[in-house]
Amino acid sequence: MIDMVYCVDNPKKWHEGNMKGNSSHYSGLKYLGPKFIASFQENSGARVYFNTLVPMEGVVIKYGVISSKDLITDLLEWSDLYIAGRLHKPVEIIKKTTSSELQTALQLNLQSAVHAALLILPETFSEYEFYHTICNLSYAGDFRMTFGENKNKVEHIVKPQIDGFRNLYRPFLKSLTDYVDFPVLTEGGGLCSQDTCPLAKLHHLNQLPRWPQKALTRFWNRGNFKQDTEDVLRGIAYDPDCSAVVEQCINEIVWKSSIRQSLKGLLTAGIFKSVKYSGQKIVKMLK
């Protein structure tokens, strides 16, 4: 099934037009009107509204709708790491945006993924492990990976698209030569290595988006907020378990958003489509 995402400026207007031409794509929620649909999209789950199992020109697609402002927030802050996580992988952009704000957010999202992956990875790693870690940022915490998704999903995404990942992240790695040595960029192979001293880790921690930093602060202070974010990040940079702490806090963001969005999907898809879609996922997982 092909996944598509529409980024729109006015969700109400978009759904109103789409419901007139493609009413069958929607569940019974359509009877509550486009205003409700738009509100439900923007105020629940990961702020995406999905229509699934939609036949189109001989293929079956699933398409989501997200507002420009919500997409930019997720890209910059990783508030849900939902669409932002999908955009860590090579994707086909059908229509390029003319919004400089969105263009900047798309680039910063990729930059954030590099810093997060380097914090999780050890001192030496392979090129494949680097891309696998990036791709896994939005899957490791997804509750569906425990049951309902193919356990090798990340591997199946990364291995066939190494060149796509390479093209996507080459510009950011070239700007981090003081922190990481990526031989494949110049020599075409070899193990990668990075500086894992506390100052290097602190640099990466300072480049993380707002929500992971908030999660790290909550974790470090165990909910009491005894230290501010600056002090917390410095403390984590010197912690031997820094990589595990970062991974756990990112996983928590994904865990929460994946549960909320899945519950939302029961309503946006309808019971019949939800059961059919879940069944297909389980069959695929068991193959």
Notes on the protein architecture:
- By secondary structure, this protein is mainly α.
- It has one domain (2-286).
- It has helices spanning 11-21, 34-43, 68-77, 83-86, 100-120, 127-136, 153-158, 162-174, 198-206, 210-221, 229-237, 242-269, 271-286; strands at residues 2-8, 49-56, 59-67, 124-125, 180-181, 192-194.
- The strands form two sheets. The protein has a three-stranded mixed sheet. A three-stranded antiparallel sheet has the order 4-6-5.
- A hairpin with a 2-residue loop joins strand 2 (49-56) and strand 3 (59-67).
Topology overview:
Layout: E1 2-8, H1 11-21, H2 34-43, E2 49-56, E3 59-67, H3 68-77, H4 83-86, H5 100-120, E4 124-125, H6 127-136, H7 153-158, H8 162-174, E5 180-181, E6 192-194, H9 198-206, H10 210-221, H11 229-237, H12 242-269, H13 271-286
Helix pairs in contact: 1-2, 3-5, 5-6, 9-11, 10-11, 10-12, 12-13
Total discrete domains: 1
Sheet with most strands: 3 strands, mixed
The gyration radius over C-alpha positions equals: 20 Å
Work out the helicity level.
Answer: 55-70%
Contiguous runs where pLDDT drops below 50 for at least 5 residues = none
- In round numbers, the mean pLDDT is 90
Number of helices: 13
Structural class: mainly alpha
End-to-end separation in angstroms reads: 17 Å
**Strand line-up across the major sheet:** 1-3-2
**How would you describe the shape?**
globular
SS strand fraction:
5-15%
Order of helices and strands: EHHEEHHHEHHHEEHHHHH
Number of strands: 6
